[in-house]
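PROTOCOL LOG
Step 1. Enter all chains and additional molecules of the complex.
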Amino acid sequence: MAQVSIRVNGRVRKGDVEPRLLLAHFLREHLNLTGTHVGCDTSQCGACTVLIDGRSAKSCTIFAVQADGCDVTTIEGLARDGQLHPLQEGFWEEHGLQCGYCTPGMIMSAVDLLNDNPTPSERDIREGIAGNFCRCTGYQHIVNAIQYAANKAARK
Amino acid sequence: MIPTAFEYVRATSLDDALAKLAASKGEGKFIAGGHSIVPLMKLRLSQPKVLIDIARIPGLSGIREKDGRIEIGAATVHHDVATSALLRKQCPVLCDTAAAIGDPQVRNRGTLGGSLAHGDPSADYPASMLALDAGIHMNGPKGWRVVKASEFFQGLFTVDLAHDEIITGVQFTPVRAAAYAKLHQRASHYAIVGVAAALDASDGRIRSARIGLTGAGPCAIRLRKVEEALAGKTASTDSITAAARHAAADVQTVNSDLHASEEYRRAMVPVFTRRALEAALTRLQRG
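Step 2. Run joint prediction.
Step 3. Record the structure below.
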């Protein structure tokens, strides 16, 4: 067993884990943060995307021990004081989800995208979510939802 | 998917990494970004007993300029190569290559050294390493050595790196007139065919060209017949179009899988060779 100490959504979480435990399973099963989904489990679909030290990463392709000492943000860490994050609001307003399975990963990728590029073009958005699959194929509304969040931030 | 159990240790220096690898008695593997080895471990195609994390070794990542050469540390993630201002200015082909790898999440974690050591036939970096004539630097019990990219890629998942060695980085002379063109697999974004072309020209004439091809065969190769066809020719679209036709002649074994048949890959090699050369020519003409 290995000791890990990971700051998850602003709170330090410690645990004794097997080195082979994936970060996605640490979040879901040890911390009960089930907003992070496991889709393909082969590093392709992006449903398990979280932020590690501010950058998007597929938590099905990282062992929890590798994230020891890191800062991890999951979908549960975005809303503040009961107020949806602008991206969550965008997905609500623009019908950015159908079945909802890909949504947490889509949103976490979009957070990374907007941090790098607050005023993305439609193409930038599509490239920014190239590592996330929506099997409902609802990409157009997802792009609109991300654009909504970017526009909202620009108005401030 | 759950890998077999292993022991996890973190290396604090290059010497420490090599000592830990030696102590594992052939049962250890390095991990940096983990984007090649973790998927293999989950499929149990790789079952190391010890995983040695080298991601946090000071000095193993970063992009530096040194005496007209550029040095990239093995643990540098693709995102940092793709967005490097130094490379964008002096050697944009590497930014383009790194930006074409996988997707944003993969580029945030995957590393240059990991990609090279893994030797995937569809990886992007090998094409550019060949076109830049990069030296791959490695360290091991017998000391340092440098292997030229043209000798490093030897076959399917086979590179000139001993099991007791570690890649520390790559070095190359930057080339502005170079470009990468890629046909990517839609889900994984791996290269079905990827071509990197670098041109050395003066007074409108091509002195020499170096062209690296990835994705088509068991490992990345130089397209020597195209290079020969370009040497001494006018730097023009016509010479490029004519030379690119030789690309198929350089390719012996061609992969065939569910993403692309052998026939399709063979047809795409000259197409992407021409596109890479055209983009390199555009950079040459813009200066």
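Step 4. Note key features.
The longest strand of chain B covers residues 191-202.
Chain B touches chain A through 29 residues (CB under 8 Å).
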